[in-house]
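Task 17 of the worksheet. Students: predict the tertiary structure of the chain below and write it out as C-alpha cells. Keep your answer in the requested format; marks are given for formatting as well as content.
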Amino acid sequence: MGLFLGRGRKARRAYGFDEIALIPGEKTINPNEVDITWELKGKKYEIPVLAAAMDGVVDTKFAITMGKLGGLAVLNLEGIQTRYKDPKEIYKKIAKASSEDVTQLLQEIYQEEIKEKLISKRIEETKSADAPAVVSAIPQRAERFGKIAEEAGADIFVVQSTVTTVHHISTEYKVLNFEKFCKKMNIPVIVGNCVTYKQSLELMQTGIDALLIGVGPGAACTTRGVLGIGVPQVTATIDCAAAREIYFKKTNRYVPIITDGGMSTGGDICKAFACGADAVMVGSAFAKAEEAPGKGYHWGMATPHSNLPRGTRIYVGTTGTLEQILYGPAEMDDGTQNIVGALETSMGNIGAANINEMQLTEIIIAPEIKTEGKIFQKAQRVGMGK
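Model answer:
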C-alpha cells in the first residue's frame, strides 16, 4: 500500500478529523438512553473525557470540579503547581507577557525546582474534596514521583512524553522499564504518547493499563513543525485500536486507548470514538473554562523546554463554565460547548448504544464535509465558518 513519493520511496496516506465523516445508522436511539461510561482497570467512569496535563488547564480546583462532573483531570507534576506554593502571580506574568517574550519567560519560570512536598500537597488537596487525583510525569521521573503520588493517595498515574517506546536508549539517565514499573505500582498506569500499531502493541505487552494516542496534534503544540513528526489522529487512533484488539484476542486483557489532542469540537470527539477510542484527552477546549487557571491562556507541556521548545502560548479566551463545556446549556453554536451532549446525540443518530458500538461506526473520507453548503457561514464567519 502507499503512493510513490519518488523513485523507490513510498508513503502511506493518513487522515485527520476534518477529512472524514460518520455515516448515520440504520436505527436511531434516544440520546438520553445511550451509555457513554468507560472502564479503567475495572473502575467505571461516568464520562470518557480527560482534561490534559497542561498548566493553563488543570490545577487542583479544576481537577476537583472535573471529578465532581464525572470526568478526570490530569495534574502535571512537573509544572507550575509543584514548583510554586502560590502560582497565582506566575499565571498573571504569563498572561501579561508579549508574544515575543513569552517563550523565554516560560523557560525561566520552569527553571524553578520541583518541590516534592508540593506533589503530595496537590494530591491531598484533590483527595480531601473527594475527587479522583490523576497526575502525570515524564519517564525519567516516573519511579520517584510515582512512589510519592501513590503514597499521597493518587488514583491514577500517567507517564507521558512526546514519543514513548519500550526500547528507549540513553546513556545520560536511567531508562524506565515499563514492565517493572507497572508491577511496582498499585494504581492504574496510563502511558503515552504513541501513534503506531507496533509501538502500541509493545507498550500494552508491558502491563500498562491505558494508552495515550497522539504526537503533536494539540492546539498549543508545535512538535510537528519543530520536529516534522506525527500522524494525523484518525489514522493514529485506528492503527492503535487495531493493536488493542489483537492484544485483547491474545491475552483477554483489554487496554483502553485514549485519543489525546487535535479535538476542538464535539464533532471531532465523536469522530475519535468512531475511530476506536475508549476515551479522549482534551486541552484547549477546557482552557476556555472559567475554572481553568490560565484564564483563557493555554500552552503546551514542551513550551518551556530550555533548549528546544515545542509549543507556544495561545489565547483561547474564556467562554463559559466547565459544566457548560461538558454538559451545556450551550451558548455557542460552534460545537465547543456541551461536548457530552454532542457525543450522546451523535451516538443516538448512529444507533450506537455504547462506546463499543460507536467504535464500529461506518466512516467515509469526506474532506468537504465541513464546507459543503456552508457558504453563508463562511462568508459571515459564524457557526462552522468561524
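Marker's comment: The CA atoms of residues 51 and 282 lie 5 Å apart. Residues 233-251 form the longest helix (19 residues).
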